[in-house]
């Protein structure tokens, strides 16, 4: 009737342009974000814990590793250079890899490992998330020493949905082996049994006063009376769920795995491997005549072996003497009722 059919080549050209415009929409929406650059040098570092010195695989010689700090909408570019004999990848645990799956990090899944002397650049955008996540190695058991926090602030000029805290403090639970963790998992894979348990749990890389030879290797949190602190909890332990509590203090859960939740009060948190939880800690209004232990211990119901020990740090009120700290009440390892879970 006088109308001509549109050539198929023209249709494909239009479709191509539409798809390309859709591809860049998130980048346009996040135009207020900036690009943050980091460099991770994978290198050996001598570290002493439990009166035992050994060489561990680290990022930039730090244990735990350095934080990634960004705002929602920011682009993060991390250049990883491998200076050790182990193959390495880095996984950004919990980060939504939208059209950037090659930056996710699992070895042999989204990338080949970074070999000795090689470099790999991770490039991704933080989209729709704010709170706490963490990064760790994603090959064999290198994540036992290769891990660190990812701190995601809201977009600029966007407040928290709760009162702004006086200070923010990352608290990372981990594990320490006096032996080489790579040898531990290799032996387990060879004999088919469960791997040997760690020698200690750690808070920010420190075992604390309840372990042998570790009184000086204790995480201490100094607070001011009446102030509110945002504790960014990360469970970087390999396989263990952990109870966490602070003696004589109540905690308010406000965020889990970089998603805001309806705030609720609790005196004990259960945090699973790979999970993150943000808590508000309101310091007492007056100087108490005490310091307080913050402690974590495992939750387990199976018949397998696990490290049934307790890691502790110290909550200390500023400008106050240091009496013996009061211990918190923690659930026994198989307790499954009346505990508060952040799951």
TrEMBL record:
Single GO cellular component term: apoplast
Domain Plastocyanin-like: 43-156, 168-319
GO biological process, one term: lignin catabolic process
Family matches, as SUPFAM superfamilies: Cupredoxins
Pfam family name, one: Cu-oxidase_3
Intracellular or extracellular location(s): Secreted, Extracellular space, Apoplast
Enzyme superclass (EC): oxidoreductase
Protein name: laccase
Source taxonomy: Eukaryota, Viridiplantae, Streptophyta, Embryophyta, Tracheophyta
């Amino acid at each position: 009737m006088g109308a001509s059919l549109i050539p198929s080549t023209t249709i494909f050209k239009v479709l191509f342009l539409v798809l390309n415009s859709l591809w860049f929409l998130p980048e346009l929406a996040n135009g207020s974000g900036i690009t943050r650059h980091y460099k991770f040098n994978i290198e050996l570092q001598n570290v002493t814990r439990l009166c035992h010195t050994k060489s561990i695989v680290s990022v930039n010689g730090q244990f735990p590793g350095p934080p990634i700090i960004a705002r929602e909408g920011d682009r993060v570019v991390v250049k990883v250079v491998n200076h050790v004999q182990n193959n390495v990848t880095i996984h950004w645990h919990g980060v939504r890899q939208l059209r950037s799956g090659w930056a996710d990090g699992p070895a042999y899944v989204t990338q080949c490992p970074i070999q000795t002397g090689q470099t790999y650049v991770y490039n991704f955008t933080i989209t729709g998330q704010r709170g706490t996540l963490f990064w760790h190695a994603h090959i064999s058991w290198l994540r036992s020493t290769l891990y660190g926090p990812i701190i995601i602030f809201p977009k600029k000029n966007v407040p928290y949905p709760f009162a702004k805290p006086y200070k923010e403090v990352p608290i990372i639970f981990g594990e320490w082996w006096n032996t080489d963790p790579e040898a531990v998992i290799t032996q387990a894979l060879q004999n088919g049994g469960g791997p040997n348990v760690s020698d200690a749990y750690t808070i920010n890389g420190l075992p604390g006063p309840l372990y042998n030879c570790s009184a000086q290797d204790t995480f201490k949190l100094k607070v001011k009376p009446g102030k509110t602190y945002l504790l960014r909890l990360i469970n970087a332990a390999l396989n263990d769920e952990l109870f966490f509590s602070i003696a004589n203090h109540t905690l308010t859960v406000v965020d889990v795995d970089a998603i805001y939740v309806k705030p609720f009060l609790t005196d004990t948190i259960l945090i699973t491997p790979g999970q993150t939880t943000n808590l508000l800690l309101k310091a007492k209004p007056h100087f108490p005549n005490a310091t307080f232990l913050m402690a974590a211990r495992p939750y387990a119901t199976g018949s397998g072996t696990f490290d049934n020990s307790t890691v502790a740090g110290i909550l200390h009120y500023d400008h106050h003497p240091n009496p013996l700290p009061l211990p918190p009440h923690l659930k026994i390892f198989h307790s499954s009722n009346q505990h508060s879970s952040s799951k």
